C-alpha cells in the first residue's frame, strides 16, 4: 500500500472537514443532549455526494473508492460519532450489500436513491437471543406465493425508524441454522413492519437505535437479496466492510479527542506555564498520537484492500479491534488531560469518551473480532 493520497482524496477530505466543522460540530453537543437525529445533515451530505462515495455514477454514486469513504467517516466522527455511524451503516452495510448482491432492478430501485441521499439505509441482524451468535436468530420468513411473510423482532438497529430501506436477515429454514438464513430488503411503511422502542444510550445519542417488529409482514419475492439461504454469508461479508467503517469512526473520535487535548494543553496554564509544557502531559499527547497513527494505517490498509479487490476480512477485524481500543484509551487520556473540565459537558471530550465505547461493541464485539482474526490465522 502506498501511503499517499490522490488529489481527489485530498479534495474530498478538505470539503468534508469544512462541512464537519461548519455544519455538524455546532449542533453535536445539543443533539447528543436531546438524543435528536437531524435528517438535514444526511440531506446535505446527499447534496455533497457523500451518501454514495464508492458506487458507480450509474447507481447515483460518486465513483470514488472505499478508502475515500473511510476518510469521510473519519472526518465526520472527528466532530460527531453519531453522524459518522449514520453514514457508515448506510454505506458499508446497506448500500454495499445491495451493490454486491442486488439484481440490476434492486440496484436501480434501492441503491440509486440510497447513493443519491434520497433514502437512508439500516441493517438488521441482531435479536434478543442472537447478538454475537448471529446464526441463532429466530425471525422467520416463510414463502407464500409471490411474498415472504416475516415474523419476529430485531434489536439495536442503527438508523432504525429514520431509514427508508432496511436489510433484514430472517430464517427461511430454521432447521439449517446459518444455511437457512436469507436477506431481504424491507421498506419503511410495509404492512406489518413495526417500529418498537428507541434505546436510551450512553453514547452516540443522536444516532437512533431502534427495535423492529415483524407481524405477518409480507415482502415481495423480488426483495429477496441474493439467493435464498445465502443470508448469513451476505451478513458476514457486509460486516467485513462495515467494520472498516467502525474502525474509521473510532479513528475519527480519537483524532477529535487528540485535537481538543492539544488545544487545551496549549491554553491551560498551571504552575506558571501551559500544561503542554509539562512532560507528563506532553508525553501523554505523544502516546495518543502514536496510537492514532497506527490505527489510521490499519484502517486505511483494510479500506485500500477493499478498493483493490483484495481480501480484507482479517484486516478489517484487526483495524476495528485496534482502532476502537485506541479510541477508548485516547479519550480516557483526553479527559484526564482536561481534569475537572474534561468531566463536564462544557468540553467535548466526555462526549467523545461516551461515543468511543460503542466502537468496541457493535458490528461484532472486540471478542468476536479476536475470533474472526484467530480463526483465519489458525485455519488449515
Ligand atoms: N465472509 C463470507 N462467509 C463467511 C464469513 C465471511 N466473513 N464468515 C463466515 N462465513 C461463512 C463460513 O464460511 C461458513 O460457511 P460454510 O458453512 O459454507 O463453510 C458460514 O458462514 C458459517 O460460518 P461460521 O461457522 O464461522 O459461523 P459461526 O456461527 O461460528 O459465527 C461469528 C461466526 C464470527 C461468531 C459470527 O456469528 C459473527 O460475526 N458474529 C458477530 C455478529 C455481529 O457482528 N453483529 C453485529 C450486527 S450489526 C450491529 O452491530 C448493529 C448496527 O446497526 C451497527
Automatic annotation (TrEMBL):
Obligatory cofactor(s): FAD
CDD domains, sorted: SCAD_SBCAD (cd01158)
Matches recorded under InterPro entries: Acyl-CoA_Oxase/DH_mid-dom, Acyl-CoA_Oxase/DH_mid-dom_sf, AcylCo_DH-like_C, AcylCo_DH/oxidase_C, AcylCoA_DH/ox_N, AcylCoA_DH/ox_N_sf, AcylCoA_DH/oxidase_NM_dom_sf
Pfam family membership, one: Acyl-CoA_dh_M
Keyword terms: FAD, Flavoprotein, Oxidoreductase
Domain Acyl-CoA oxidase/dehydrogenase middle stretches: 122-217
Record domain Acyl-CoA dehydrogenase/oxidase C-terminal: where: 229-377
UniProt domain Acyl-CoA dehydrogenase/oxidase N-terminal: residue ranges: 6-118
Family affiliation: Belongs to the acyl-CoA dehydrogenase family.
PANTHER family for this protein: ACYL-COA DEHYDROGENASE
Protein name as catalogued: Acyl-CoA dehydrogenase
Organism this protein belongs to: Paenibacillus germinis
Lineage: Bacteria, Bacillati, Bacillota, Bacilli, Bacillales
Amino acid at each position: 500500500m502506498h501511503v499517499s493520497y490522490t488529489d481527489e482524496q485530498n479534495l474530498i477530505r478538505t470539503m468534508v472537514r469544512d462541512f464537519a466543522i461548519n455544519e455538524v460540530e455546532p449542533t453535536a453537543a445539543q443533539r447528543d443532549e436531546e438524543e435528536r437525529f437531524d435528517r438535514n445533515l444526511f440531506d446535505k451530505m446527499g447534496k455533497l455526494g457523500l451518501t454514495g462515495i464508492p458506487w458507480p455514477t450509474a447507481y447515483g454514486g460518486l465513483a470514488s473508492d472505499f478508502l475515500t469513504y473511510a476518510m469521510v467517516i473519519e472526518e465526520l466522527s472527528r466532530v460527531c460519532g453519531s453522524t459518522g455511524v449514520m453514514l457508515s451503516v448506510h454505506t458499508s452495510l446497506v448500500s454495499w450489500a445491495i451493490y454486491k448482491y442486488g439484481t440490476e432492478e434492486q440496484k436501480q430501485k434501492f441503491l440509486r436513491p440510497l447513493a443519491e441521499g434520497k433514502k437512508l439505509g439500516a441493517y438488521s441482524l441482531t435479536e434478543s437471543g442472537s447478538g454475537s451468535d448471529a446464526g441463532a436468530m429466530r425471525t422467520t420468513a416463510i414463502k407464500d406465493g409471490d411474498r415472504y411473510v416475516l415474523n419476529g423482532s430485531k434489536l439495536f438497529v442503527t438508523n432504525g425508524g429514520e431509514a427508508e430501506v432496511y436489510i433484514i436477515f430472517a430464517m427461511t429454514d430454521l432447521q439449517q441454522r446459518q444455511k437457512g438464513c436469507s436477506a431481504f430488503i424491507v421498506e419503511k411503511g410495509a404492512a406489518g413492519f413495526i417500529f418498537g422502542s428507541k434505546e436510551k444510550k450512553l453514547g452516540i445519542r443522536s444516532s437512533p437505535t431502534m427495535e423492529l417488529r415483524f407481524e405477518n409482514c409480507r415482502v415481495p419475492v423480488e426483495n429477496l437479496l441474493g439467493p435464498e439461504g445465502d443470508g448469513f454469508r451476505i451478513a458476514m461479508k457486509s460486516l467485513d466492510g462495515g467494520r472498516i467503517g467502525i474502525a474509521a469512526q473510532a479513528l475519527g473520535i480519537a483524532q477529535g479527542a487528540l485535537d481538543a487535548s492539544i488545544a487545551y494543553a496549549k491554553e491551560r496554564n498551571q504552575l506558571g506555564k501551559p500544561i503542554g509544557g509539562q512532560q507528563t502531559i506532553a508525553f501523554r499527547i505523544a502516546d495518543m498520537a502514536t496510537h492514532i497513527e497506527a490505527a489510521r494505517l490499519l484502517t486505511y490498509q483494510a479500506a485500500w484492500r477493499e478498493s483493490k479487490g483484495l481480501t480484507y476480512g482479517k484486516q478489517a477485524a484487526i483495524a476495528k479491534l485496534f482502532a476502537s481500543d485506541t479510541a477508548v484509551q485516547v479519550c480516557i487520556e483526553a479527559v484526564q488531560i482536561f481534569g475537572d473540565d474534561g468531566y463536564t459537558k462544557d468540553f467535548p471530550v466526555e462526549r467523545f469518551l461516551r461515543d468511543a465505547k460503542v466502537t468496541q461493541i457493535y458490528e461484532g464485539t472486540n471478542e468476536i473480532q479476536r475470533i474472526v482474526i484467530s480463526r483465519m490465522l489458525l485455519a488449515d
